[in-house]
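Why does residue order matter? Because the sequence determines the fold. Keep that principle in mind as you read this record.
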Amino acid sequence: MQKNIAFIKITIVTVCYNAVKEIETTMLSVLNQTYPNVEYIIVDGGSTDGTMEVINKYRDRLSAVISEQDKGTYDAMNKGIAMATGDWINFMNAGDSFCTIDVLYQMFSDKISADCGVLFGNSREYRDNILYSVKPRPFYLSKKKHFSKGICHQSMFLRTMLARRYPFDLAYPVAADFNMVYHIFKNELYRFEYKDVDVAQYDLMGFSNKNVAQAYYEEACIINPNAKNNRPLLMLKGKTIHCIKQAIIKMLGLFPSLKRKLRGINKIEL
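Structure:
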């Protein structure tokens, strides 16, 4: 493929609040990227635990920093979108990190076609102190989205103009990222392009994973607004599916042969 000699600008946004123990690892995974044209924006929610002191250690390497109260993670991410000047945008929030220092180079060194609007790769997930590499199974590749893996925002890059057109809807406090991607896919002609690159790693104890039933309910409502009338049933269904998934994951450790049969989930030896 043709090399992207111009190195288009990539905006990385990190949202944080009282994340003094996590923020530096996240920041260094961005600041140490070998890709030469990165805009790095940090949106802090008014931390009081020393987070800003850590951020200020690297202030001269940051494109922009704000620290003020917000309405939650997605509101802060929308602030990052408003500040972004890059052609593409990614959200790497406190506690998450890029897998290697050359992730951005791997994703963007080749020329990206003009009809590509969403570029995404693999994720590494910590589950019970075990790291797994997970290939996404986007909803549009599965007739039953909730049995697919989906695309996590940490491993996804959007054209910034699409992020502005479809900002995070605060009406969905858990699944606003799914809402954004779903409507881009539904309403736009831009392609979703996958690269077999491990992009980001994160702990499964993140916010949406602590609220799996609510996430399931919100995603169902996004796809079908009439689902709002079936909240108790959908919440129960979400919890049930989550329990089944967790049981399967635990079985991987007991029966290694099953691991090879579950496409897209592989244990990484640390």
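The domain at 10-223 is CATH 3.90.550.10 (Spore Coat Polysaccharide Biosynthesis Protein SpsA; Chain A).
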